[in-house]
Specification:
heterodimer; A: about 400 residues; alpha/beta; Rossmann fold; eight-stranded mixed sheet; two-stranded antiparallel ribbon; 10 helices; globular; B: about 220 residues; seven-stranded mixed sheet; two-stranded antiparallel sheet; 9 strands
């Protein structure tokens, strides 16, 4: 077969990206040996650092802080040009001037999760004990670990209570963990397209992605940096598979149908004849330029382990007993990764706990990714919720000014 | 079923007192201050807002996303859902009152819904359009077609209201499932109460809607 071309990819990891792992183009909070991060796996991680960005101003009574939690492959650059890709912030529909989360009104904080690869300590960071990349020596982290690290950052910023914690997908899991672990520190939450536990199907997709990375001979047992290789093919395949789960049959059909890519007839080969193939290959190859393969393994694992009810004798409602936080839960009709049924289960538990919860299911064919896209009904309810919560919080006009 | 089509009532706007609908004020007056209330089919949250202004801790269920959005913008806690399918998910005794305003006739299983209201809440407040209202009777008797009124203008083939009943029918259902009627009020077309000293058949004839405060009967639930 002469026409088969592998996924186009850089031969090694982008130098910019590798540099970001230890020297992020953002603010950094460093925690020394005296301030270890106590991980669920039993390890005390120290020293460690959290890379973060802030936008807007903290008001005088420190009551207008919003923590934005990023999803699996996001990072702290929610509202600025990304230092590696040069693209705009990852949530420009939600965060920014005139958007529901407006830096003119709120003090916005977004941190790279622990285990990530954009400056917070993770498998792509240097292990101070060896002087080499952590790789698989990095301890397994969980969603509660991510939130614990964020809480240490929020402490350092001198903020007692967050006005709101916001996030979608893995970000939504962090939002829920925040309310379960620190209910008194969260005034309101916006939990989008998420779940209180990762489903068997979602674990299965993650395992597929991890196996694709680990099956790449360039992965080298996670020591690809030491051996000057990079499992770009495996990571790209993982991203391609995952990307399908972020969309929907209807969205793929609308966007691509069975249309051909720069040709009229099939080539009778395994080349990317269809536009949808070409699109997926592009998604895979652009992803590997900005993301670390080991970090992908760790973060998908953290999502797999997430199950709030399990920490409360299997009764989800117990996680939220007596909670005063205002909840807004949003799901999307075509999201089959975190379907509405998962959000409803959360809402039922919150109802059983007498929590103050609102819930809306947004009609869209854009799948799980809808939360990152310009879906007016979704942005409208987000804005309405934040403004009303801001009034209840005593923020002027629902915001700072 | 669609709460969106039934709430708020299209057609004649009920008379307002101090900016609030009279039927809402009547409902609000039935609720003890400081209690917890679930409003099923809460529309854009007008009644919930009135209740919260009186120190009542309110929650809502609303079928339409537009309704939910309006409620969220008012700072209310409202869940998008369906009375027929979602009430089963609420625990026993979760609320002091559960309100079902102008929605009973649009549910698939009014009896099951009513039983759920009084399982979730210590008390229920139910209001519904009275199909025994004289205008309804006249249209069927003289006109020979399904009644349409200012408050219920939809044709039989596109109405969301699939389980109409009269005040008399509702009273019989309450007796059948052992529900105690603590208070019953019939409102005329303009939301004014029909005088209390008149007999039931007058209510059933001249009440455009019935509003009932219910509690669990003596034996069992």
């Amino acid at each position: 077969m002469s026409n088969v071309r592998p996924i186009p990819s850089p031969q090694t990891q982008s130098d910019d990206r590798a540099h970001e792992a230890d020297h992020p183009s953002s603010l950094v909070a460093k925690f020394g040996m005296d301030q270890p991060l106590k991980l669920d796996c039993g390890v005390d991680l120290a020293p460690f650092q959290i890379a973060y960005q802030t936008y807007g101003e903290l008001n005088a009574d420190r009551s207008n802080a919003i923590l934005v939690c990023h999803a699996l492959t996001g990072d702290q650059h929610v509202n600025n040009i990304h230092p590696v890709t040069g693209k705009p912030g990852w949530w420009e529909t939600m965060v920014g001037a005139g958007r529901p989360i407006d830096p003119d009104k709120y003090f916005i904080i977004c941190s790279n999760v622990i285990g990530g690869c954009m400056g917070s300590t993770g498998p792509a960071s240097l292990n101070p004990a060896t002087g080499k990349m952590w790789g698989l020596d990095f301890p397994i982290i969980t969603i509660p670990d991510m939130v614990r690290a964020q809480a240490m950052l929020i402490d350092r910023l001198g903020i007692a209570t967050l006005f709101c914690v916001v996030g979608g997908s893995m970000g939504g899991m962090q939002v829920l963990q925040w309310t379960a672990a620190y209910p008194e520190r969260v005034f309101a939450t916006l939990a989008i397209a998420c779940s209180t536990r990762h489903s068997a199907q979602n674990i299965a997709f993650h395992e597929l992605g991890r196996q694709a990375v680990m099956a790449d001979p360039d992965w080298r047992g996670g020591r690809y940096v030491d051996e000057d290789t990079h499992p770009h093919r495996g990571l790209a395949v993982a991203r391609m598979a995952a990307h399908i789960t972020y969309l929907s049959d209807a969205a793929l059909h609308r966007k691509f149908g069975r249309r051909m890519q720069d040709r009229e007839l099939p080539t009778f080969s395994f080349d990317a004849d269809f536009q949808v193939e070409s699109y997926l290959r592009y998604q895979g190859s652009s992803f590997v330029e900005r993301f670390d393969a080991n970090s992908y393994l760790y973060l998908t694992r953290a999502m797999d382990y997430f199950d709030i009810a399990a920490d409360h004798n299997g009764v989800l409602a117990k996680a939220f007993t007596g909670i005063k936080t205002r909840f807004c839960v949003v799901s999307f009709t075509s999201d089959w990764l975190f379907p509405t049924s998962e959000s409803r289960a959360l809402v039922h538990a919150l109802n059983a706990s007498s929590a103050r919860v609102s819930f809306a299911e947004i009609e869209t064919d854009r799948g799980h990714d809808a939360f990152l896209l310009d879906v007016p009904e979704f942005l409208e309810i987000s804005r309405a919720f934040l403004l009303a919560a801001g009034k209840a919080r005593g923020l002027k006009d629902g915001g700072q000014s | 079923m669609s709460m969106q089509q039934t709430l708020p009532l299209p057609g004649v706007a009920p008379e307002r007192t101090g900016g609030y609908r009279r039927d809402h004020l009547l409902v609000a007056e039935m609720v003890r201050p400081g209690s917890r209330v679930l409003d099923v089919g809460c529309g854009d949250g007008e009644l919930l807002q009135l209740l919260e202004s009186r120190g009542i801790d309110g929650r809502g269920i609303e079928l339409s996303r537009e309704g939910v959005n309006g409620c969220v913008a008012k700072g209310l806690a409202v869940v998008q859902g369906d009375a027929d399918t979602d009430l089963v998910n609420y625990p026993d005794d979760a609320f002091d009152y559960v309100i079902l305003s102008q929605t009973l006739q649009a549910t698939r299983q009014p009896k099951v819904v009513l039983e759920n209201l009084l399982r979730i809440g210590q008390r229920a407040i139910v209001s519904f359009p009275n199909f025994g209202f004289w205008k309804m009777r006249l249209q069927l008797l003289i006109g020979g077609h399904m009644p349409r009124t200012e408050n219920l203008p939809a044709s039989w083939y596109d109405t969301a209201n699939i389980h109409f009943c009269t005040i008399k029918d509702f009273v019989e259902l309450c007796e059948q499932i052992n529900v105690k009627m603590e208070r019953a009020v019939a409102l005329d077309l303009y939301g004014r109460p029909v005088p209390l000293n008149l007999p039931w058949w007058v209510w059933n004839m001249f009440g455009e809607q019935g509003v009932f405060l219910l509690s669990r009967g003596g034996q069992g639930k």
